[in-house]
Amino acid sequence: MSANSSPEGAPVWHSLEVNKALDLLDSNADSGLTPQEVEQRLQKYGTNELEETGGRSAWEILLDQFKNIMLLMLIAVALISGGLDFLSWQSGQLKPGEVPFKDTIAILAIVILNGILGYVQESRAEKALAALKKLSSPNVRVIRDRKLLDVAGKDIVPGDVILLEAGVQIAADGRLIEQSNLQIRESALTGEAEAVNKQAVLTLPEETSLGDRLNLVFQGTEVVQGRAKVLVTNTGMTTELGKIAALLQSVESEPTPLQQRMTQLGNVLVTGSLILVAIVIVGGVIAARGFSNLQELVEVSLSMAVAVVPEGLPAVITVTLALGTQRMVKRNALIRKLPAVETLGSVTTICSDKTGTLTQNKMVVQSVYTNNSSFRVTGEGYAPTGDFQLNGQNVSVDQHPEIPALLVACAVCNDSVLQQEKGQWTILGDPTEGALVTLAGKAGIEKDQWSSKLPRVAEFPFSSERKRMSVITQVEEVSTGVSPMTAVDPAIAHMLNQERYLMFTKGSPELILARCTQIYLGDKSAALTDAQRKQILAENDNMASKGLRVLGFAYKPLTEVPPENSDETSEQQLIWLGLVGMLDAPRPEVRAAVQECRDAGIRPVMITGDHQLTARAIATDLGIAKEGDRVLIGQELQRMSDQELEQNVDLVSIYARVAPEHKLRIVQALQRRGRFVAMTGDGVNDAPALKQADIGIAMGITGTDVSKEASDMVLLDDNFATIVAATKEGRVVYTNIRRFIKYILGSNIGEVLTIAASPLLGLGGVPLTPLQILWMNLVTDGLPALALAVEPPEPDVMQRPPFSPRESIFARGLGSYMIRIGIIFAIISIALMWWAYNHTNAPGYQGDREAWKTMVFTTLCIAQMGHAIAIRSNNRLTIEMNPFSNIFVLGAVVVTTILQLMLVYVPPLRAFFGTHYLNLQELGVCIGFSALMFVWIEAEKIFFRLMGKKTV
Ligand code: ATP
């Protein structure tokens, strides 16, 4: 074992200097690896992925299916029914041709089938969620072959040089090459919530513990602040996280509120049915004054127990939620937490960022204001071509020497990269900064050139709280004897005297101006007068009220590099350079989406870090701000108590110049007012607000990894209109869930009542066997219910107010519908049963005397077909609807009817299901009675319409 290597021979990275580490990995801090090297290393080390070790194993998922109380009850029914068969078989009471244990075997088969079905669905759902998570997994910014690239995290190899900035979740373990104000939250690894300051210059003793390795960064941890360049040392399962991968990789598939309520409903139904069974048995024994009819009573009870349980429901709900998620992804809304699918429809307030969500985030500088003159800038997109105009005339910037100084600040105090790809100018990085590089380029001031002329030696990075950033540059070293002053470019020649460093600062104009004491006039700087301040602020307001995003610029000559974290003291006594105003046009589709929100009773609210006038101009343009709506500024909000904020929160539709921590207070205030809030966010500090919101929404394109991790949903296109589209899908999903619950449970109630009625009417014998009931609940109810799950939206889905997510599943008439329709269903089938019993027991009847039971069975099934067709709409009559708009319902009805007829007319199936042959007249009567169900529901719709009542 050599020094600086672990017992396994791997280097101990934290004990090595950067250059040694770079040598060991045969890499270069400036140029990175070449594509060939990356390819070779991918072969050697494999991809940077963690093996999935968490989550439930296949067996666990399968076993979980049988923990369901309803399935347990079915197993009990199967065993009791098996016991009864055994007794009859032993005592030789089996009818000729009757197969013993048929019900038991069939019920057990269906229990197993149901278990397997549940298993397949759940494991598919887990896989789908895992895949969705991968879709949102972060890209990494890497230097390869001297170029800056964004690559998928899995393609990172040891030796890669990667760049980190605030909000990034680190993709691999690495050794810091350089850093600036770097703070990292390592809670994922060490459990320590406090962020850690990291330093590249350190070399640490070998025995340093994980939490103290301050020159290393680790996979899965998060950059809270600052930036860094990192040499990747370990990837995949060899990272520190990889060693404990089981902790992180498990995919959360928490049950949704609805699934939880369904489990509760299951418990209620099982308990209810057991009570019913007890009543029937005790009542029957008392009525018969003995146990003579015990076997029949037990059979009736078993059938009732099976009938009351909606065996198909859990499967239908899972499928519906899964389909909802898929439809949302197609509309660019990626669901990260399943409950969001069903609760999205309940959103009452959408709090949205401005930049990128309501606007296009394609910035073009339109105005520049320096020293009393306002210049218009022409040109489109990020192409660095265009003119500077003063009073409508093109001007040369050299005639206005304060402009080149401002443009140098634009180019140097900047982290974005302007690229030309296939003739198209694009940017890598923040569009605000991209627009500034473009602006400078229009006057021939190129970022690359100036970055080497004025190399960056330190910086105070941008954050949404600070609303500004500074870059400290070193004025080029020149050969001895020549003073730096004369060697520098004329563009900055007058900006400094003997100082060796120049700090450039840009940010929110009010903030920057407040830190300035002088103004740059092109050839000198002078004290900044109050009149000048007023004028600058007036021009700022003027630009902002046109909807422009305005940034202020300043600089300061320095004799030495300021220490880290000294921003508050260093960014003082600055020299003002000017204002730059850029246009970020609203997204064209947002206006319609805002209107749709309003129609749907959802209030859109803009929350932005930008200036109040810029915010108001854009919010008014988009229809977000209405007459009388208030604009609240971050500073005012800061002064308000929580109670005051709560009193005002329903009146404010624009929050401007806010910091991320204000977002949390806004969500909380809205929630205390009973609102159900969706909130967007992209920065690392937005995470608490995203977690607090009922639906936290992260930006797919501009969002930081940390914000995505905290969110329920990711907008793949960053677009506000997508939130509205997803909300609509949420409403459709919930409406459809309610629809098939009505459909399934209404039928269950009908079945139970019909079965209970048979001994009461003294008909003798159980009309439906457990097997037939299972068939109905799973197949003839299950298939149409699945088809109802994909029912397209009703036309008025976005023209009604949202419903509370906390309302009971039985609210808004669902409970009464179930009971009402259950009773109607029972009345129809009991009437049919009465007729059929008398018909088949009439003297001289030629057919099978038990055929009345099959008539009841058939009627119950076929009546549900009419129910399925009629329930497609709550208020519209079937003839008012396009029968082909949900082809699945038509298909399910046809297939199910054919299957049901096969049970009656195909002899082996008949024998197995214990049905009896029906002649044409009998079948006709069944269909006639069944049709009454459809007629009744349609008549109800007409009745409610005449009463002016609308069901939703
Ligand atoms: P939204 O919250 O709607 O996305 P925003 O983009 O204005 O709005 P932030 O990104 O937090 O919000 O920016 C807040 C303010 O900070 C901006 O209005 C601007 O004045 C300033 N700012 C934005 N980007 C930069 C930057 N790269 N450098 C310096 N200052 C910036």
UniProtKB/TrEMBL annotation:
<feature type="transmembrane region" description="Helical">
    <location>
        <begin position="268"/>
        <end position="288"/>
    </location>
</feature>
<dbReference type="Pfam" id="PF00122">
    <property type="entry name" value="E1-E2_ATPase"/>
</dbReference>
<dbReference type="Pfam" id="PF00690">
    <property type="entry name" value="Cation_ATPase_N"/>
</dbReference>
<keyword id="KW-0547">Nucleotide-binding</keyword>
<dbReference type="InterPro" id="IPR059000">
    <property type="entry name" value="ATPase_P-type_domA"/>
</dbReference>
<feature type="transmembrane region" description="Helical">
    <location>
        <begin position="817"/>
        <end position="837"/>
    </location>
</feature>
<keyword id="KW-1133">Transmembrane helix</keyword>
<dbReference type="InterPro" id="IPR004014">
    <property type="entry name" value="ATPase_P-typ_cation-transptr_N"/>
</dbReference>
<keyword id="KW-1278">Translocase</keyword>
<feature type="transmembrane region" description="Helical">
    <location>
        <begin position="918"/>
        <end position="937"/>
    </location>
</feature>
<dbReference type="GO" id="GO:0005524">
    <property type="term" value="F:ATP binding"/>
</dbReference>
<keyword id="KW-0812">Transmembrane</keyword>
<feature type="transmembrane region" description="Helical">
    <location>
        <begin position="852"/>
        <end position="871"/>
    </location>
</feature>
<feature type="transmembrane region" description="Helical">
    <location>
        <begin position="883"/>
        <end position="906"/>
    </location>
</feature>
<feature type="domain" description="Cation-transporting P-type ATPase N-terminal">
    <location>
        <begin position="12"/>
        <end position="86"/>
    </location>
</feature>
<keyword id="KW-0067">ATP-binding</keyword>
<dbReference type="InterPro" id="IPR023214">
    <property type="entry name" value="HAD_sf"/>
</dbReference>
<keyword id="KW-0479">Metal-binding</keyword>
<dbReference type="GO" id="GO:0046872">
    <property type="term" value="F:metal ion binding"/>
</dbReference>
<dbReference type="InterPro" id="IPR036412">
    <property type="entry name" value="HAD-like_sf"/>
</dbReference>
<dbReference type="InterPro" id="IPR001757">
    <property type="entry name" value="P_typ_ATPase"/>
</dbReference>
<dbReference type="InterPro" id="IPR044492">
    <property type="entry name" value="P_typ_ATPase_HD_dom"/>
</dbReference>
<dbReference type="Pfam" id="PF00689">
    <property type="entry name" value="Cation_ATPase_C"/>
</dbReference>
<dbReference type="InterPro" id="IPR008250">
    <property type="entry name" value="ATPase_P-typ_transduc_dom_A_sf"/>
</dbReference>
<dbReference type="Pfam" id="PF13246">
    <property type="entry name" value="Cation_ATPase"/>
</dbReference>
<feature type="transmembrane region" description="Helical">
    <location>
        <begin position="101"/>
        <end position="120"/>
    </location>
</feature>
<dbReference type="GO" id="GO:0005886">
    <property type="term" value="C:plasma membrane"/>
</dbReference>
<dbReference type="InterPro" id="IPR023299">
    <property type="entry name" value="ATPase_P-typ_cyto_dom_N"/>
</dbReference>
<keyword id="KW-0460">Magnesium</keyword>
<dbReference type="GO" id="GO:0005388">
    <property type="term" value="F:P-type calcium transporter activity"/>
</dbReference>
<feature type="transmembrane region" description="Helical">
    <location>
        <begin position="69"/>
        <end position="89"/>
    </location>
</feature>
<protein>
    <submittedName>
        <fullName>Cation-translocating P-type ATPase</fullName>
    </submittedName>
</protein>
<keyword id="KW-0472">Membrane</keyword>
<dbReference type="InterPro" id="IPR023298">
    <property type="entry name" value="ATPase_P-typ_TM_dom_sf"/>
</dbReference>
<feature type="transmembrane region" description="Helical">
    <location>
        <begin position="300"/>
        <end position="323"/>
    </location>
</feature>
<dbReference type="GO" id="GO:0016887">
    <property type="term" value="F:ATP hydrolysis activity"/>
</dbReference>
<dbReference type="InterPro" id="IPR006068">
    <property type="entry name" value="ATPase_P-typ_cation-transptr_C"/>
</dbReference>
<comment type="similarity">
    <text>Belongs to the cation transport ATPase (P-type) (TC 3.A.3) family. Type IIA subfamily.</text>
</comment>
<dbReference type="InterPro" id="IPR018303">
    <property type="entry name" value="ATPase_P-typ_P_site"/>
</dbReference>
